[in-house]
Amino acid sequence: MSQRALLLVNSQSRQGQKRLPEVISCLVQQGFEIIAASTKKPEDFSEVIRRYQHQVDLVIIGGGDGSLNAAVDTLIETNLPLGILPLGTANDLARTLGIPNSLPEASKVIAQGELRHIDLGWVNGKHFFNVASLGLSVKITQRLTKEVKRRWGVFAYAFTALQVIFESRPFSAEIRLNNKSIRVKTVQIAVGNGRYYGGGMAVAPDATIDDQRLDLYSLEIKHWWEIILLLPAMRQGRHIHQSNVRALHGQEIEVYTRKPRPINTDGEITTYTPAHFRVIPQALAVFVPIKSTVKKDGNPGISGDYF
After folding, report:
1. What are the angstrom distances between the C-alpha of 146 and each of 12, 65, 86, 128, 266?
2. Which end of the chain is flanked by fewer CB atoms within 10 Å, N or C?
């Protein structure tokens, strides 16, 4: 029996609207009965999911990490499983889960893959998949326009980061974890639930999206050029071993700043400090490749241990 799927495509994503016919064709070939809804902004996804929640078996989202983030709270609310078609710029969640960028292959994962439950991060009432952060990354988000993404693709993150790094200034913050208070002077605090963020950087070398913990790092540098030296290590998460990077992990973390600072969740500014973070174990069902894992080199492997 064919499954009925609600297909949501962000028409403003890098590939969204122009590939919609191809997306529908791939899914129909896999036997899905499709209800397609293309919206001009991901903020409309929640309303559409609620409208069709009793008429479909799953939700398929075509877009990037911002599109997925826009729908995550409603997916939790409706308890509908998620299929992912990577149509964004970075596709960090797809990378973490080992989902291929090829539309036919990603469609096959939804039709023939495994349904697994992944952890979610939570901050001030907002769920997130990958990373929530404040400081440098927020400035990058504010500069990272749709036009820059379309022109430079995944390289837009590095291009924009280099522009912003020169302007970075440390700020004071208090981190509370495991009944301890740590005061820091930092340019960025990132709290990761998944593995990848920001176009393929790893939050920690051993981070996974099912380890039931949050990984925090704080960039406590004195000079802007120190960030440049850290960038190569950040691709594999090895930056956490450097002396000017503080690394912590736990299930609940609080961050306080002197004045409210915006927080970026999966590439979208959604809340402000003071911030209460926590991990929600096995919160959402997602279709993934059978016995898929993401090895430390970021390439898909075969293992039964990942989930």
Report:
1. 8, 14, 17, 21, 15
2. N
Residue 304 per-residue DSSP state: S
Nearest to 39 by CA among 80, 6, 65: 6
Q: How far is CA 176 from the centre of its chain?
A: 24
- Residue in this structure with the two tokens 């956490």, named with its chain if needed: 240
Paired sense of beta strands 252-257 and 4-10, if any: unpaired
Q: Count CA atoms closer than 13 A to 33's CA, side-chain side.
A: 7
Residue 166's closest CA among 139, 202, 184, 141? 139
At 191, phi and psi to the nearest 5? -120, 115
In this structure, the number of other CB atoms found within 10 A of the CB of residue 79 comes to: 9
State the Cα–Cα distance between residues 141 and 255, nearest whole angstrom: 20
**All residues at 6 or more sequence positions from 30 whose CB lies less than 8 Å from its CB, including other chains:** 107, 108, 110, 111, 112
In contact, 122 and 275? CB cutoff 8 Å:
no
Mean pLDDT (the chain) is 86
Task: Count Cβ atoms within 10 A of the Cβ of residue 132 and give its class: 0-12 exposed, 13-18 middle, 19 or more buried.
Answer: buried
The 10s digit of each residue's pLDDT in 97-147 is 999 999 999 999 999 999 999 999 999 999 999 999 999 888 776 666 666
Token pair of 56 as six digits: 């479909």
Which residue is it, tokens 């492997």?
Answer: 301
Residue matched to tokens 């302007």:
167
Count CA atoms closer than 13 A to 227's CA, side-chain side. 22
Contact present, 110 and 86 (Cβ < 8 Å): no
Q: Which helix (H) or strand (E) holds 156?
A: helix 155-165
The Cα–Cα gap between 294 and 185 comes to 33
